[in-house]
Amino acid sequence: MNSIGKHIASYKYGLRGVWFAFRYEPNMYVHLAAATGVVVVNYWLHVSRTEWLITLLLIGLAWMAEVFNTALEKLADRVTQDHDPLIGQAKDLASGAVTIICLFAIVCALIIYLPYLV
What we know:
The structure is a single chain. The chain is mainly alpha-helical. It has one domain: Helix Hairpins, CATH 1.10.287. Helices cover 89% and strands 0% of the residues. It has four helices and no strands. The protein has helices spanning 3-24, 27-45, 49-79, 85-117. α2 packs antiparallel against α3 (49-79) and α3 (49-79) packs antiparallel against α4 (85-117). The longest helix has 33 residues, at 85-117. It is flat and about 50 Å long. It starts with a helix and ends with a helix.
C-alpha cells in the first residue's frame, strides 16, 4: 500500500475509534449533549466568529480528552484487573485531564455568554 493509501486508511481507524468512544463510553453522550447545547446557545445569542471558534475548540478538546481517558482505561484494564495503585493513579490522572478541560470550558462559557445575557 502506498503512503496515500496508508494515510486514508488511518482516517478509517480514527473514525472507528470515535465510533467506539460513543458506543462504549456513556460520558461521550454527556459531552455530546453539552456540545449541542453550546451550539444552540451560540446560534441563539449570535456570538462572534471568534467566540464560535473558541467554543468549538473547547468542545474538540473535551472530546479528545475523553477519548484519551477511555483509551488509557481500556489499556490499563488489559494489563490487569487487580487493584494496582499506579494504574489507579494513571486512570485518575487521565480523568483529571477531562475534568480540567471541562472546568476551563465552563469558565470560558461564562466569560463569553454573560455579556450577552446582562
